Protein 1
Amino acid sequence: MLPEKYPTDSWTNVPPTILAQYGRRLHVQPNHPLSITRKLIESRFPGFRNHNDLPGIVTVHQNFDSLGFTADHPGRSRNDTYYINKDTLLRTHTSAHEVDVFKANTSNGYTISADVYRRDAVDRSHYPIFHQMEGALTWDRSDFKTRQACVDQITTDFEKLPKHDLVVEDPNPSFHAERNPLQEKHHTPEEAEIIGAHLKRSLEDMVVTIFTEADKALAAAGQGSQAEQEPLKVRWVEAFFPHTSPSWELEVWWRGDWLEVLGCGVIDQPLLVRADVPDRIGWAFGIGLERIAMLLFGIPDIRLFWSKDARFLSQFDEGKPIRRFQAFSKHPAAPRDVSFWLPKSNAPVVANTPAAASSAPSPAGGQQTEPSLDGAAPVFHENDLMEIARNTAGDDVEDVKLIDDFVHPKTGRRSLCYRITYRSLEKTLTTEEANALHERISQELVSDFGVQLR
Ligand code: PHE
């Protein structure tokens, strides 16, 4: 529950299901897989100050403006973000605290781990609350006689970082005028170059640690070590974040796929100026903890992290080596389809392009809520169905997927069909229970969005 009473207004869109989970603090719960994952990552950044208690309700300013998000950035949309009211929201990323932590100026390196909130797809790897860890390291140019002396120090620090035998693909230049620019006004090429190198080597080291642990757990479970077949491999991909430049994403080759694990870059200098530490230069990253924990422990469904079931919780022990999660009885799935005609007045439906857990509120994933025509039903966005499904079925909904979409050639009306898969983690849902949930969701689509069921 929210710790205080906040005024609501026309921006308010936080549902009771989210409020009920607010404050669970899974990332610090002893022996919880998210806490074990957090500690494992923290252990690779010795000397960093770890902030694990920053409250999840922040201002729009902290979450977006302080980081240099433009006024029209799609991440601000009510389709993607949970607003408590027009000025206050549930943080969408741990970067919301960057400026405050830089301002407090109590350490050169820090991590921030916390719960973050995003309206998003319903499937086994997305949940509207997840956890991120932010990490940053800066050097203070005013500690050195010359800028070159600061570069020399970063170089020395770089050389002291642990070496690894990871295969690293990094085909792009350290920065690129159009695709991934150097902050020319603020950094010399040498500064950006060495900060980028230090950042990449530090994160590669973290990834080696995580994936070596994951691989050991696999081998111990008799599920075959990946490293025995091919060496661990990562690649750096150019990226964009409003608060870093140049920016990258790190992808890891894991069990036959490139997996995006984090976003990072050279910290935007105007941000550091706003934080009253104009002489500091450095790097930052953000990583999604669920995704890492899922592959470390082999946890197949993101809803499990929220389980209070001893069959889940008793499997994790922070004093012991990582062990693969043993699935307990899986209850059968109950898929149901809902097809409907959209009202004519509905704007084009925007589908989710699920952003990776670590990436910024997806630039492609949403659009501003269209004001509804006078008297007409509010405009339907795919996330509205996700939200109705979660609010009605809670954790008994596993997946919501668009399976058909067509426009009638004569009337021009658009029809959508979604498949909603119900499955409880705790019991078998009866036909009647699944039908009742489905009926309530269908009726809410009618009453809230004026759709016509087919
Ligand atoms: N804040 C970004 C996100 O949520 C991740 C990030 C953090 C990127 C720090 C760069 C530096 O997705």
Protein 2
Amino acid sequence: MALLEILKVPDERLKQASDPVEVFDDALRSFIDDLEETRLAGPGAVGIAAPQVGRFQRIVIVDVSNTRKPVPNHGYMVLVNPEITHWEGYEMGREGCLSVPDYTGNVIRATHLEVKAQDPRGKILEFKMEGFEARALQHEMDHLEGMLFVDRVVSRRTDLFRRKVYLKGRKAIGSA
Ligand code: NI
């Protein structure tokens, strides 16, 4: 296992779209282990996407189980080639990002999702998710399109907030 370097703004590579995964081999699974180790090393990180470490493939990890948000969740999820097949509702909520360490922002996201993806062996998975978990997944899937939460705030003047201290273990505003 190895810690991977996280790309941070204004790195132009964060704007690159990622390609589908076609080969489900040991090298892929080893990369996913490294990606998870890198997520766990980040402060309060509830998710991470492969392009954040410079690998432009459609792979995301989400795990909101270690947060205070009292909503149902699936715990640790690796989603390869994820697709949202249905979404409902919307709400504004605060987001942070390992690639944008100095800011948090208010972003509108769907509240309920149905998602299709593959696991690290290529098996098809289907999930329904809601609330903070659904938010985290939408945030990660944006990374696959080269988009960051700062591109989604309605107003950079009123909806972006500078982080004073990036406290380790501060779970109220997770990064993803
Ligand atoms: Ni992010």
